[in-house]
Amino acid sequence: MSGKNKTLGEFIIENQAAFKYSSGELSKLINAIRLAAKVVNHEVNKAGLVDILGTSGDTNVQGEDQQKLDVLANEKFIQTLTNREIVCGLASEEEDSFISVNSLDKNHQNKYVVLFDPLDGSSNIDVNVSVGTIFSVYRRVTPIGSPVELRDFLQPGRRQVAAGYIIYGTSTMLVYTTGHGVNGFTLNPAIGTFYLSHPNMKYPEDGRIYSINEGNYTHFPEGVKKYIKYCQEEEGDRPYTSRYIGSLVSDFHRNMIKGGIFIYPKSSKAANGKLRLLYECNPMAFLAEQAGGKASDGFNSIMDIEPEALHQRVPFFCGSKNMVSKAEEFMQAYSKN
Ligand code: AHM
Ligand code: MG
């Protein structure tokens, strides 16, 4: 079949045929995520219409206010993935600890765990700025047939089997990888179908956009300060353009299409930055590498970090390969790991 008008459902089936010994479990899992994406999309899109905006009054494990839609998106993802009996464990930004999923007839037979941020950038919802869902999939390391353990979730990003995001923007897109490149699908809301709109997405090797919350400038490491000044210098194709939405999925998506670097560094206020390794940085790093880009903590590859905790934070430099390498040069020259 030609790439024209291909739906996500057709793409999943075709890809499954390409994996000779595949059991179809991963395909079913991606299908379940596709369904959850549509459900959350429906909720996000009616956000301005019904009284579900504002904070729910609870705080999550990291002491942040939870927006009502965070809670809703979290519930919808958990429900959809649990009901389909397709995962053995889940971990979410909005849950203190991981969830062991079992169904009586399956007796812990599923092999995949999913880690996700149900609604990233949710502080942007009430001003109608794009938000997203991020997900990361691993094969469990504990034996099949037993309940999952923390070590099933604390795996380096290098071991991811699949990762992706859904961006609820001017149009809703699902972008994902199973380690064979990155493909983007756009939702036709009239009929609820995702179509392959961005096959084989590639990060330009160089870019002209830098994305960082410069309001924190005084608290940044010297290497980051120097790199920002480099971006602003008048030389060659510089100065670069500054673009920061404050919604990781949107900033990443734009930079992947146009070429750019996203940085959330550590600072004197936040020792490891803000973003979480397991369900924000690792999936984005996997997508970046699969699209020919790069992701690092300023010194080493994000995907090689051995995780120690479920909600661990990490400094994040991600984007066009040459831009990330340049930023690393500044970190090495002016900052200590
Ligand atoms: P969240 O998971 O609580 O929504 O926070 C993550 C978001 C990212 O989407 C974004 O890149 C970052 O926080 C923005 O943080 P800041 O407002 O400090 O620049
Ligand atoms: Mg988040």
- Give me the CATH architecture of the largest domain, please: 2-Layer Sandwich
What is the ordering of alpha helices and beta strands? HHEEHEEEEHEEEEEHEHEHEEH
Shape, principal axes of CA atoms: globular
Ligand set: 2,5-anhydro-1,6-di-O-phosphono-D-mannitol, magnesium ion
Summed up, the domain count is 2
Q: What is the CATH C-level name of the largest domain?
A: Alpha Beta
Task: Write up this protein.
By secondary structure, this protein is an alpha+beta fold. It has 8 helices and 15 strands. Helix 1 (8-18) runs antiparallel to helix 2. The longest helix has 21 residues, at 25-45. The model has no long low-confidence stretch (mean pLDDT 91). Magnesium ion (MG) binds at residues 93, 117, 120, 280.
Give descriptors for this structure.
binds 2,5-anhydro-1,6-di-O-phosphono-D-mannitol, 8-stranded mixed sheet, alpha+beta, D-Maltodextrin-Binding Protein, domain 2, globular, 337 residues, 30% helix, Fructose-1,6-Bisphosphatase, Chain A, domain 1
Task: Summarize it.
It contains 8 helices and 15 strands. With 337 residues, the chain is an alpha+beta fold. A hairpin with a 4-residue loop joins strand 9 (182-188) and strand 10 (193-198).
Secondary structure layout:
Blueprint: H1 8-18, H2 25-45, E1 55-59, E2 65-67, H3 68-83, E3 89-92, E4 99-100, E5 112-120, E6 131-139, H4 150-153, E7 162-168, E8 172-177, E9 182-188, E10 193-198, E11 209-211, H5 222-232, E12 241-242, H6 248-258, E13 260-264, H7 277-290, E14 294-296, E15 316-319, H8 321-334
Parallel strand pairs: 3-5, 11-12, 11-13
Antiparallel strand pairs: 1-2, 3-4, 5-6, 6-7, 7-8, 8-9, 9-10, 13-15, 14-15
Helix pairs in contact: 1-2, 2-3, 5-8
The structure holds 2,5-anhydro-1,6-di-O-phosphono-D-mannitol and magnesium ion.
2,5-anhydro-1,6-di-O-phosphono-D-mannitol binds at residues 64, 93, 117, 120-123, 213, 246-248, 264, 274.
